Amino acid sequence: MYLEMEMKTQMETKVTVIVDNIACEGLAGEWGLSILVEYTNKKILVDVGASELFAKNMEQLGINIGDVDYAVLSHAHYDHANGMPRFFKENSKAKFYLRETTEENCYFKKFIFHRYIGIPRHVLTDYPERIEIVSGDYELMKGVYLIPHKTKGLEAIGKREMMYQRTSHGWKPDDFSHEQSLVVDTDKGLVIVNCCSHGGAVNIINEVGKTFPDKHVYGLIGGFHLWNKPDAEVRDVAKKILDTGIDFVCTGHCTKERAYRIMKEELGDKLEQLKVGLNMIF
User: Fold this and answer.
1) pLDDT tens digits for range 28-87
2) Alpha helices in 178-230 (DSSP H)
3) What are the backbone dihedrals phi and psi of residue 89, each rounded to the nearest 5 degrees, phi first?
4) CA angle 148–272–251, rounded 5-degree value
């Protein structure tokens, strides 16, 4: 089964980086990510960073938070979700779209210790009328979709990354079922925004390609969680991304500088650095 995309009026899609580790002059960065997608006169905010910094940067960029039409949480980690209360304070109309498995249950494990790395405490109960829970392949609006992971065995990645979920049956490796991709049907092809790609950048490209077999996957934007991977593995990921036939990749945040440099050697002009204030047109 796959989603059939309708014909749309040809129009440029604009993507602006609101929060990333690296910032342009006059803007600030932090360990987190927030990306604004402007599509057919609608504004979609993907993630809200690790603090209220996203609001300051949006103001500096001349973007009104109150004008955002949709908000999407790429996955249930603090560095993408901590700005949620500020967003709800500044925007009175947009729903925030989360996967149905999203809970306050994400932890980083080191030895016998577990450190909470999840969404803001009580945000699900404090703002129930503002949060929209979705499942499966979800059409956000015409030409824009939220796609979950469809790759099996992702809990092995969670175990390797020492990321666990607290459940009623004890601790279990995170399978990243709370992670989703925003997929936009642009004039150049499908553009994916998946802000940490915990399930694997190559897996995500392939998942979207199989979901929309009649469409070309043009680009992938987001962090790839390669900051802690050995050089050889980073290079292998870059080569596999190249093999998918994708045309454009923009990464930063949890990819970090070392992995980015290695990927640049393999991807060349196809690769661009994420940074606060960066604008991309598709």
Assistant:
1) 999 999 999 999 999 999 999 999 999 999 999 999 999 999 999 999 999 999 999 999
2) 201-211
3) -70, -35
4) 35
pLDDT at 6 over 60: no
- Residue 109 backbone zone (phi > 0: left; psi -120 to 50: alpha; other: beta): beta
Does the predicted model carry a pTM greater than 0.90? yes
Give CA–CA dist 102/146, Å, rounded. 14
Looking at residue 196, the DSSP 8-state letter turns out to be S
Tokens of 194: 């998946």
CB atoms within 10 A of CB 145: 23
Cβ within 8 Å of residue 253, ≥6 positions away: 20, 21, 31, 32, 33, 195, 196, 222, 223, 274
- Which pair of tokens denotes residue 59? 């103001």
The owner of tokens 């009175």 is: 92
- Order of all β-strands in the sheet with 106-110: 113-116, 106-110, 163-167, 170-173
List Cα–Cα distances, 18 to 24, 55, 138, 236, in angstroms.
11, 9, 24, 29
Residues in Cβ contact with 169 at an 8 Å cutoff, skipping those fewer than 6 apart: none
- Angle, CA of 257, 35 and 107, to the nearest 5°: 70
State the pLDDT at residue 173.
Answer: 98
Element (H, E) at 249: strand 248-251
Dist. CA 31–CA 44, nearest whole Å: 21
